Amino acid sequence: MKSLATKFNIYKDYSIDLIKLSGPILAGNLANMLISVGDVVVAGRHSTVTLGAISVATAIFMTFMIAAAGLMASISPVVSNLRGERKTTKTLFRATVKYSLIIGLLFFLIIRLAINYVNLIGLAPDLYPLVIEYLDISSWGMFGGLLFLALKEFLQAYEIVNFPNFVVVAEIFLNLFLNVALVFGMWGFPELGVKGLAIASLIVRTLGGIALLIYCIPFLKGHSKRTKTYIKELLKTGWPISFALFFEFLGFNITAVLVGKFSSMLAAAHNIIITITSLTYMFPMSVSNAMAIKVGFANGEKNMTDIKRYSLAGIYLSVIFMALNALAYIFFPEFLLSLFTNDKNVILTALPVINIVLCYLFFDGIQCCCVGSLKGLKDTKPIMFTMAISYLLIGIPTGCILAFKFNIVLIGFWSGLALALFTACIISSTILLFRIKQMQKISACHKP
Description:
By secondary structure, this protein is mainly α. It has helices at residues 4-46, 48-72, 75-84, 93-115, 128-138, 142-156, 162-184, 194-215, 227-260, 264-301, 304-331, 333-338, 344-350, 354-376, 381-405, 410-446. 83% of the residues lie in helices and 0% in strands.
């Protein structure tokens, strides 16, 4: 048996390895998130109706965007596995670009179709036309957005993260400039309100994709004979991730839409809470991305020791971070909320939800890291079923019962989300543990 000190040193090394990779990924994710934060801050300063409108509109748009991003998320673990098997992968770049554009076209058409049915949601009258306007313009940003994500994933498999992060940082400032100029009508631009937010989003997503494509020109030199096999593997690994993310964000976004049915005030408060928790979520998500790469490479090498240790090290990191992060939510909740709105009523509406958010984030961090390891193992179907059960069968029904039957609206919906994440945490950690033990038995049987 290894001593406690020896185990600590072992996992310390693996944790440092994950931090080195996840640090730049975190910087990029935070920068990307700050683009959305900029939208929320500008919208909140414009009006409560504008803030409520983009809360609902982005909830609908991001449901599809995230599902499409799930299909892109298979790129880094698949390429990492191939690299672990010592196979040539740079020649797969062209196939990656084609893959992103095809998926982009598919989801663009889906959003255009969905616009025709937004009226069935029954939004508040002041929100409906603004939501339609935002979706109509933003749908065109699907191509550039997915191209950027695909190339970012491809480079990430090689642990190349600095330039994509630079692009995202540049997008923050461009997005903020365009938001202020187009929403408020500054520097000679007309005041466009929600429409301005949508135009800014379209421009930023498109330019980001083009910038990364130009950077990746050296990869265009080679062709691969394994293009069809590669794309099939991307789809095989990616579609369960896509559905898993779809179910997860569907849970959040159905909640956002349902909250919007009650009032603009509740929709605004919900949007601010989502923004704050999303910022916190960036750390475990970045560690999860790093785990998918490291576990994927180890899986390609058939290295069971690294698979297990990277998996546990990532979970430990997430638990420690969430415990430390809870202090900010406990001692400075009003300050955190005031960063996004000056409306005291919105702050008072959101404040009671903070305690529930603490539980939600803790469970979310653990399940996110478990998902990262399962991606690296290319064992993604359990992720899909876990999210479907957690959100569609438990989280959303619980929230609806509390909100519509007992009139506990914001607290009710967030209680449902917390319960969904608790369920996902239990199921995903159990699946990962079983999968590792199963692989250890198979590995032991093949040893001479």
